[in-house]
Amino acid sequence: MEVQAQLTEREQKKVLARLLSYTKPHKKMISVAFVLLILTTIGDIVLPILVKIFIDDYLTPGKLEFRPLFLLGTIYMGIQIIKAILLFFQFVKFQEIALYIIQQLRIDVFAKVQSLGLKYFDQTPAGSIVSRVTNDTEAIKDMFVTVIATFIQGAFLLVGIFVAMFILNVKLALFCLIIIPILLFVMNLYRKLSSRFYLDLRERLSQLNAKLAESLSGMAIIQIFRQEKRLRNEFGRINEQHYNAGMKNIKIDGLLLRPAIDLIYIFALIIVLSYFGITSFQHSVEIGVIYAFINYLDRFFEPVNQMMMRLSLYQQAIVAGSRVFKLLDEEEIAPSQKRDHKISIEEGLIEFKNVSFSYDGQRDVLKNISFTANPGETVALVGHTGSGKSSIINLMMRFYEFERGEIFIDGESIRNFTKDELRVKMGLVLQDPFLFYGTVRDNIRLHNEGITDEQVQEAARFVQAHIFIEQLKDGYSHKVVERGATFSSGQRQLIAFARTIAANPKILVLDEATANIDTETEEAIQTALAKMRRGRTTIAIAHRLSTIQDADLILVLHQGEIVERGTHQELLALRGLYHKMYLLQNGAVERFEDVIN
Fold first, then answer.
1. What is the pTM of this model?
2. What is the C-alpha separation between 79 and 184, in angstroms, rounded?
3. How far, in Å, CA of 144 to CA of 149, rounded?
4. Which of 89, 111, 90, 92 is nearest to 100 (CA)?
5. Is the pLDDT of residue 286 over 70?
C-alpha cells in the first residue's frame, strides 16, 4: 500500500476547518463548555494573587488577625471547591460534544461507504476502510475532547497570566515576553515534523487492519493450504514498519515536547530570579511578588507543556481527519439515475444494445453485447471463466457504470430508473449467498416490515426450505451467526432463494444458483425455479448446462463476445463451442482445451 505524502500547511488548515464545521449543530453546548472553561481559568489566575496578598499584607508584617485571614482562606478554599465542580462539568460537556461529533462523522463515513461503487471496493482493502471508520475517527474524538479545550484554556490562561504579571511588575513581564517567540518556534517545528511521521503511522495501522481482515475472512483457506507461516511473516513485516513509524514519533516527542519546554522554563526562571536578585541590591523586594511571579511562571509553562503534549494528539487528529475526508470525497460512487421523475418496471423487457465495458479502462471484458430478453422468458449465459457472464449481470444490476452502448428495461434506459426501483424489481441470487447476523426470519425478510411472517413461511415453502428450517431448534427464530457459517452451502442457498421470492421481483437474476446444492435438493429446487421463473424475466448464469436446457435463449460467451446464441437443441445442432462444452460435461471430451480450440 502506498503511503500518502506529507500534508502541507494549507491542507492541514483545510482539514481543521472541516473538522470544526461539525461543531455548528452544537453551538449552545460549546458555549456552555467555554463559559465553564473561562471560569476555571479565572480561578487559576486569582489564586496566586490571594496567596501574594496573604504573604505581603499579613504574613510578612505579622498582621495575623483572625477575621481577615479567615475571610481570605474561605475565599481561597471556596474558589478551589467551585473550580473543582466546574472542571467536572467542563470535562463532561467537552466529552459529550466530542461524542456527538464523532457519532455524526462515523454515520457520514458509513453512509458514504454504502454509496460507493463496487469498483472502489475492488481497489481498496476492507481493513483499510474499517480503520478509517474506527481508528481514525477515534483519533479525531481525542482532538475534540482534549486538544481544543486545552488550547483554548491555555490561551485564556496565558493571556490572564501575562495581564497579572504586568500588574505586578511591568519590566519583568516584558522580559518574560522573550520566551513566546522561542515557544512558537518549537511548536511550529514539532507540528511540521510530526505531521509526516503521524501520517506514516496511520497508514501502517491501516495496513495492519487490512492484513488482519484478509486473514480472518480467509482463515479456512489459510489453514487448508498451510499458509500460517507466510501470513505471520507478512503481518510481522507490516508490524515492524508500524513499530519503526511509532519510534520516529516517540523520538520527536521526546526531543521537542517536555524536554525542550522544560529547558525554556529553566531559562525563564533564571531571568526572573536574576532580575529579583539584581533589584534586591537597590531596594527591598516583596516576597509575595516573587512567589506570585514564580507561581505564574510555573502556571504559564504548565499549559504550554499541556498544549505541546496535546499537539501530538492534534497532529494525529489532523492526519486521521485527512484520511477520513479523503474517503468522504471519494468520487467512485455507485451509478445513479439521470432523470428526476420516477419510472416503474412493469413488463420486465430487457435489451442490451452494443454494450462494451472495461473494469480498468484499458481491456474490454465485454465487446458489443446485444440481446433481448422478452417478458417471462429465460435467457441463460454460458461460457468458460472470464468470458464476461458476471460482468453482464454487474452492469444490469447497476453495480458498475458503462460508457459504450445502452441497456434498456421496458424501452427505457436503465440509467433513468431509480436505484430503489431497480433493487425492488430485480431479485439476485448469487452462487455464494450472504447471510446476516440475526434470525432466519430476518434473513428472509431482510427487515422489510411489509413482508409478514406468513409470507416469509410461504416463500420458504415455495423453495423447499421450510422443512429444514422447521427442524432447527428455534425454527424461523433460529440465530444465524456471521455469514451463516453454521449452515451448509445448500441451506444458505435455499434461504437466499426464499429471500428473493419473498420480495416478489419482476426480473430474476441467477448466478449459478444451484451450484452449491446437492443432487437430491437440486431436483426439488429445479421445480421451484421453474415456478419462480413463471411470469418473470430471468437472466441465469449457468456452468452446468443441464440446468438451463429449457431456457428460451442461450448466449454462449467467449472472451467478452457472444459467439453463439439459440436454444439448447439449436446450439447442439450448430456443433460449435456450446456443443463441445456439452460433450465435455458429459464425458465425451477429456480436455478443456479441446472445447475452446
1. 0.69
2. 32
3. 7
4. 92
5. no
